[in-house]
Design goal:
110 residues; mainly alpha; 4 helices; single chain; extended
Length: 110
């Protein structure tokens, strides 16, 4: 019973892995079809630095493509406008808070 269960688990995880691979390939095919080379290169660069932002842009592009809102190739300029729109909606999370605690190590009262 246990071995059979383990085999089924392996098979099901393998098929979801293949499904994810197919979805990934499909996404890349669509993006390659709708982005020109410079825009694609910029998106790849962004994906290395801010993967969540790149994913949002990819989803926007794919949705626009599926709704037939994109005619021809999307250029780097259009991609930059989309990125600016996304950055407006994102909360500013890149704040650095300095917690300055006064530590009295240098005391003159020896």
């Amino acid at each position: 019973g246990s071995l059979e269960h383990d085999c089924k688990a392996v098979v099901s995880t393998q098929s979801t892995g293949e499904q994810q691979q197919r979805q990934h390939e499909m996404k890349n095919n669509i993006l390659s079809a709708i982005l020109d080379q410079k825009a694609r290169a910029r998106l790849n660069t962004i994906a290395q630095v801010k993967p969540e932002r790149a994913q949002k842009v990819e989803m926007m592009l794919i949705n626009m493509y599926q709704r037939r809102q994109i005619s021809g190739k999307v250029g780097e300029g259009e991609l930059i406008k989309m990125l600016e729109e996304i950055s407006k909606t994102e909360p500013k999370s890149s704040k650095v808070n300095f917690d300055r605690r006064r530590v009295d190590l240098d005391s003159d009262s020896d």
